[in-house]
Amino acid sequence: MKKEKGSGVLLAVLFLILPYLLTVIISGRKACPLSRQPDLEEYIPILAAAHIDWECEKEAIKAQTVIERTNLSLKNKSEEAIKDIQEAADYLKKKNMSGEELKQFRMFQEASACTKGEVLVFQNEKRELPYHPLSQGKTRSGEEILGEKFAYIPSVETPKDIDSPLYIEGCYFSLKELEEKIKKSYPAFSITAETEIEITRTDSAGYVMEIQIGNQVFQGERIKELLNLPSSCFSVQSSQGEVRFLCKGIGHGMGMSQYTAHNLALEGKSYEQILGYFFPDMEIQKEK
């Protein structure tokens, strides 16, 4: 119990000082006096920088900042929010940013400043906004996957995603490797032949909802996690004791595809238009 309490204190301290530390690194100490209290807005560039490719167009990054702000404001200053910020900070720390990368980081600060206070709302309420790096050419329906409450997340066409060099990846496992990986989380699991693998249900976008492997049935997203697959949109082939998961896209496939957002920005679309494409029933609202 003492250890958990100590960790909570450290997280709370991190929440307070992280924007100060990053601002000092990037802009100098005078830009951020210690007496000033940080607010949620200061974490948006950090979160966006950790969650989208830095090569994306600025309008796509602006769209990401609105998504990050909406999601963070829903969590407010909860332990979950602090955990998200800590993970984002750890990501930036591991990058060991050079002078050039620090200049690039300013793009995220500028994107956050340009969209300051803006969130997406559905029927005047903020809702959780999912995103992913790359779809399979069509995003998934929130209502189909998660129920009517998530009807504000529609399935939209994302044909540009198919052009990505990362669109398809084959992941190979021997039967022994497959069994060992799954048994770490499911000790009673067993499989004896490649024929004991069958996809039993997919959604309308082609992502696997259920798959029978050996003596157990799994959700597609769960198998993605267990086998470290790039996506749950996959087909399965097997021969001579080896199993191949041929995956399309990267991530869960719901909400904004960052690759398509980038390409829409290249076509001259604004961040408002990008968000409107993926979340057509939602509108941008400025919080005070």
Mind summarizing the main beta sheet? 3 strands, antiparallel
Strand content: 15-25%
* Shape by Cα distribution: globular
Structural class: alpha+beta
Average pLDDT rating: 87
Order of strands in the sheet with most strands = 2-1-11
Estimated helix fraction: 40-55%
The secondary-structure element order is HHHHHEEEHEHEEEHEEEHHE
Instruction: Report the C-alpha radius of gyration, rounded.
Output: 21 Å
H/I helix tally: 10
Q: How many DSSP-defined strands?
A: 11
Distance between the termini: 39 Å
Name the poorly predicted regions.
1-17, 24-37
Description:
The protein is α+β, with helices and mostly antiparallel strands. It contains ten helices and eleven strands. The protein has helices at residues 2-27, 44-51, 58-75, 79-95, 99-114, 142-146, 175-183, 220-227, 258-266, 271-278; strands at 118-122, 125-126, 131-132, 168-174, 197-202, 208-213, 216-219, 234-239, 242-248, 256-257, 283-286. Strands 2-1-11 form a three-stranded antiparallel sheet. A three-stranded antiparallel sheet has the order 4-9-8. A hairpin with a 2-residue loop joins β1 and β2 (125-126). Mean pLDDT is 87; it is low at 1-17 and 24-37.
